[in-house]
Write a structure and sequence with these properties.
Strand content: 15-25%
Helix content: 10-25%
Radius of gyration: 21 Å
Structural class: alpha+beta
Number of helices: 4
Number of strands: 6
Order of helices and strands: HEEHEEEEHH
């Protein structure tokens, strides 16, 4: 999908707000929300943000960074739909003011790694590994097979 198609889709999808999403160096999802009227400029020039406000990104004197949306990641967020209008998201790459990719952007690191692997005739495959924890509720208390989790990942069980 290109920028022109995204602009057409926001109209047909009745989008009022765009969430510009990215991840910090630890992989936590971050976002900046903007009214859809700013989208044309953002698709062309990016959206400025203060990189020193994001864990592991930049020091104060080098904090000017830009979010540049990847048009192919456009998606309406179903749980943010309303009668007044919808919200969509675009996943962004992060750039410095001079137009070079920000070295701490996890998407940039992944793209660079994939390119290097491809040059070595390697292919990379990955998959999601969803985890969940259960807790007792009125409904689950009556289920004898339902066990309540009391530990989290990588935590050791206390010894007696």
């Amino acid at each position: 999908m290109d920028a022109k198609t995204v602009l057409q889709r926001v109209k047909s999808d009745r989008v009022m707000f765009i969430n510009l999403q990215f991840t910090d160096i630890l992989g936590s999802l971050k976002e900046v929300t903007t009214p859809v009227r700013n989208l044309r400029d953002i698709l062309t020039s990016g959206a400025w943000f203060d990189g020193s406000s994001v864990e592991g990104f930049a020091r104060i004197h080098e904090s000017d960074l830009y979010l540049k949306p990847d048009p192919g990641t456009y998606s309406v967020i179903p749980w943010l739909n309303s009668q007044e209008g919808n919200t969509a998201r675009l996943i962004c790459d992060i750039y410095r003011p001079d137009g070079t990719p920000f070295e701490g952007d996890p998407r940039f690191i992944l793209k660079k790694t994939l390119k290097k692997a491809h040059g070595m005739d390697l292919s990379i495959m990955w998959d999601l590994n969803p985890n969940f924890f259960s807790s007792k509720t009125e409904i689950t208390r009556s289920l004898p097979w339902m066990r309540e989790d009391t530990l989290t990942l990588f935590r050791m069980r206390p010894t007696p």
